[in-house]
Amino acid sequence: MAFPFVRLCPRHVSTGLQVCSYATLSKASRPQEKSSAGPVFQYVGQNKKPTPKVFVWGFSFTGALGIPSFVVPDSGRKKPRKYQLTPYRLETAEQISSAACGYGFSLIASSTKDASKLWGMGLNKDSQLGFQRTQHSRHQSYDYVLEPSPVALPLVNPLQTRVLQVACGRAHSLVLTDREGVFSMGNNSYGQCGRRIVEDEVYSGSHIIHNIEGFAGRVVQVACGQDHSLFLTETGKVLACGWGADGQTGLGHHNISSSPVEVGGDLSGVEVQQISTYGDCSLAVSRDGQLFGWGNSEYRQLASVTEATQINSPRHLPLKGCGKVVQAACGGTQVAVLNDKGEVFVWGYGILGKGPNLSESSTPEVIPSTLFGRSQFNPSVAVTRIRCGLSHFAAVTDRGELFVWGKNVRGCLGIGKRDDQYFPWRVTVPGQVVDVACGVDHMVAMAKSLL
Amino acid sequence: MATPAVRMFRRLEGLFCVYKPSGVHWKLVRDSIETNLLKVLNATPSQPLPQEVRFLAQPSTETEAPKGLTLSATSVPVLSKHPLVSGPEFQNIQVGVGHRLDAFSSGVLVLGVGNGNKTLNDLYRTRVTRDYTLEGEFGTATDDFTHTGGVVERSTYEHITQDKLERVLAMLEGANQKALLMYSNVDMRSQEAYEMAVQGLLGPEGKSAPILTGLRCIHFQPPNFILEVQCLNETQKYLRKVVHEIGLELRSTAVCKGIRRTRDGLFTLQDALTRHHWTAADITQAIRQYHSSKKHRKRSQSPAKKPALKTSEDVTATQQNEANEEAAVGKIKKLVAETRS
Prior knowledge:
- The complex is a heterodimer of chains A (about 450) and B (about 350).
- Helices cover about 0% and strands about 40% of the residues of chain A.
- Chain A is built from 1 helix and 29 strands.
- Chain B is α+β, with helices and mostly antiparallel strands and about 350 residues long.
- Chain B folds into 2 domains: about 1-45 and about 75-130 and about 270-295, no CATH class; about 130-265, Pseudouridine synthase (2-Layer Sandwich).
- Helices cover about 40% and strands about 25% of the residues of chain B.
- The interface of A and B includes residues 355 and 375 of A.
- Chain A: Keywords: Repeat.
- Chain A: Pfam families: RCC1 (PF00415), WD40_RLD (PF25390).
């Protein structure tokens, strides 16, 4: 006789689960299980600080982006990437506090006290990145540096000095330190490195990194033009050296100067708080918000004071409607200033940012703040940083967004396409942008993560 | 000749909005409103039956045996027009729904009756933004992004501060502003694109991916938070996904506890009818209000009817809405308590 099999231990049916063979309760009516037994993940602690990041984009074949796999792909199947059209993360050993883009090369510096605090990548044909020893021979230097390589500064106290700022010109670079002054390297055919010009000097593979003398006080800012250099001391005086054919040195003549000389003109007695140059025109902003300019004016950059094509001595530029100028940025053919309310004014020649119809202006034109994200929901968005490349602009707002506009030379705008951009356009950077450096055909941005 | 029912129907044609409670499919709302309207329309006193002259045969008496047929004219009511024969005057009426709300969400639901449905179509085609209030809670992630779904993961949220949340919202807003420019069909190299960008008129025409034109946090008390969102071409599931993604960006998890649409185009919470007011009388009044406000708007603004106008109307509407927001939220809390009871 077969007994029906009786389960001695009845199946335990939990109160939450009511599964029957015909139909299940719909999700809406199933009571929520309080899974107090499940694990709770912790991804981030209370004291997490934002991670600093560096992004690069633009033309990569010079090595200026610092990503060797774009130029020499690591795997046979990949193709070299000539233009990096959107921001690409550059892995760095330290947190980068200052970056500068020159004509085909970049310098990035960290404000650490460690031995390596300055790295260079890109063109090195004039030793603008110092001597970069090749693998095979210690007497030869690389002409193209594809990866951020340390630059050996001849510091007296290498473990005490910090690098404050770097600046790059066409074929030379300047490094500002906090205790040991300014170092210059690269091409010196016009005295832009601040040292005596040597005839027929061979700059490729040169070891010379010169510590510039002749400053009365401490230098707080350096700026590199195409073939000239500007220095700002803490007393507000501006010194210049280098090529002066367009009067960009502001020394009152059109000759070369091979050591820094104080600039006079309208700047005598004025305390300058910021200098800016990138091409052949130079600008200075004084502490009380006035703007002074000298150098090339072929593109109407200084047309508010002169009809001549060059000024070789600083002149005060009366800007109507700009208010108190806080920052100025000078490009190759165009100029931008930022006032204390966070508004951007542009003038000069080229793509100025107000549509294709405005291609030149000799008076400041304001860029409407709705283009920088000001809207009903955010009525108080202001621009905090303005930078100029050779033919484009970059602006960083207080919300950490980066806007670019201008000529898209080989993808330097980073907007994902190679078309020129006639009004400010957001660049999608994964993080909040802190600062940006503009070059001719590439850009470097320093950002920090959101959290 | 218009019957009283038809006349009443004419008064009912137009647009109005109701407050759809959560947990209810939008179709049920539409059906119940249609039923209410039909009940009232068919209850209007019908016209008296028309009479017609029929030639009826006389009833034959017993005494006479007539050889011929005698007919007499009598006026009889036309039975074919009797309501019991022909059925109620209105079998169904066209009640159309504007932008739909799924069962989990609540809020303003725009309905149109009769001729108002044509206006609904136009509403779809122009660029009309909608405002939502999203309630979120940190700490859990579920499979359908709501607090009633199956829990996928739980995580800590003590590290979240309002400042971090604002940063994430700013990032999301920046990405959406860029999407607005990307989806617009204007050539970016033209002067027209610049002019439109300055005025904030660049945007997608017709269908596109959902875009949040405005996003901000109006209440933050961990683990709960409330966001106010202004969006285009969205679905409520997308908004719940946005809450989930905000949780992910903050290195934690978040679920959406409630979605309430506070404005759809020009219809706000203040104009929305709650469940007890889904009667023909209230609906007629709401439609009358809508018509009068439309006339007032036409008179006060230029008669150029462009999509651009609709957007500027949105702007004024949202400005008004923000001013009335606190009042509306307070009122709606009362109304929600009322509907729940």
